[in-house]
């Protein structure tokens, strides 16, 4: 397979995604490694202590038990699985079904399933936290926004010795200015409408926007128009981004994923790079490695 990591916006990203088949996007930096969706537990995802699931379609969630099993096999501690609250009981039932099929020989312990709702803050190590938000798919679906808190020593404490600063902290004195920065937005599956009326304005201010473009062209003459099909199925189309390029002026980098398997890697690269306006072409990256997958 070779190296599947891409370095974008200060983050290492492994974007494994094929529409309707399997999606798992791994993001790592500063000692954290998190996964968005788990339609298949690829090797790069096994080290993720935190997994955020967008919705209940098989290509986005069917690998969660597999992920837990792989970590257990490697004697790693149980990961935390952040699941939209309406799916939690169903996922627990699936987990119990796998344990029953294993006839009590499974190495999986009880999975750490955590229900999440829009607007909730999920704290992570090293000053990071994640906030779920609602997207516009054909089923209930979440996106996730990764923030980071940056700490800068207050001007009045510049030059103070470390031991004295530590003592001040122990006494409850705030010695830092804190700046919170929207770092990465993962959109999951969604219609483009989410960008016209974003549930969180910071989605359009991130260093890295990871978003689907399931369809990229008009399709074959005589068949259903793919722009119309994208809307009917709750997906985004490349043309949405081309005609609304102004919305992304404050986004540093964009990673397109979740392409239909009807397209080849070569066609995606050629078509998108030919049709994107320069303002987007300079910041767009393509998550197309998974399209080496061949249909049986």
Can you offer a commentary on this structure?
The protein is of the alpha/beta class and 296 residues long. The chain is 24% helix and 28% strand. The protein has 9 helices and 14 strands. It has a 7-stranded mixed β-sheet with strand order 1-2-3-4-5-6-7. Strands 8-9-10-11-12-13-14 form a 7-stranded mixed β-sheet, with no helix packed on it. The chain starts with 5 loop residues before the first strand and ends in a 10-residue tail after the last strand.
List the helices and strands and how they pair.
Layout lengths: L5 E3 L2 E8 L3 E8 L2 E5 L13 E3 L5 H4 L2 H10 L6 E5 L3 H14 L10 E5 L5 E2 L4 E7 L7 E12 L8 H9 L5 E11 L6 H4 L11 E5 L13 H8 L4 H6 L9 E5 L7 H11 L2 H4 L2 E3 L10
Parallel strand pairs: 4-5, 5-6, 6-7, 11-12, 12-13, 13-14
Antiparallel strand pairs: 1-2, 2-3, 3-4, 8-9, 9-10, 10-11
């Amino acid at each position: 397979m070779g190296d599947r990591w891409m370095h974008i916006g200060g983050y290492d990203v492994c974007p494994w995604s094929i529409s309707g088949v399997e999606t798992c996007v791994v993001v790592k930096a500063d000692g954290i490694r998190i996964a968005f969706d788990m339609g298949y537990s690829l090797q790069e995802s096994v080290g993720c202590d935190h997994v955020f699931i967008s919705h209940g379609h098989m290509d986005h969630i069917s690998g969660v038990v597999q992920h837990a099993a792989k970590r257990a096999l490697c004697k790693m501690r149980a990961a935390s699985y952040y699941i939209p609250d309406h799916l939690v009981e169903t996922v627990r039932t699936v987990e119990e079904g796998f344990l029953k099929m294993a006839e009590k020989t499974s190495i999986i312990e009880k999975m750490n399933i955590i229900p999440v709702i829009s607007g909730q803050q999920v704290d992570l190590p090293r000053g990071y936290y994640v906030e779920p938000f609602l997207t516009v798919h054909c089923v209930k679906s979440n996106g996730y926004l990764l923030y980071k808190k940056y700490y800068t020593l207050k001007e009045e404490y510049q030059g103070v010795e470390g031991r004295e600063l530590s003592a001040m902290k122990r006494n409850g004195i705030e010695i830092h200015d804190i700046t919170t920065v929207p770092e990465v937005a993962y959109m999951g599956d969604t219609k483009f409408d989410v960008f016209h009326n974003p549930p969180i304005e910071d989605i359009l201010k991130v260093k890295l926007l990871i978003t689907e473009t399931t369809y990229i062209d008009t399709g074959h003459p005589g068949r259903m128009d793919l722009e119309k099909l994208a809307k009917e199925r709750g997906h985004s189309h490349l043309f949405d981004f081309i005609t609304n390029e102004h919305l992304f002026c404050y986004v540093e980098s964009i990673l397109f994923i979740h392409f239909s398997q009807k397209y080849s890697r070569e066609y995606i690269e050629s078509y998108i790079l030919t049709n994107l306006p320069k303002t987007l072409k300079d910041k767009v990256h393509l998550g197309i490695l998974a399209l080496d997958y061949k249909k049986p």
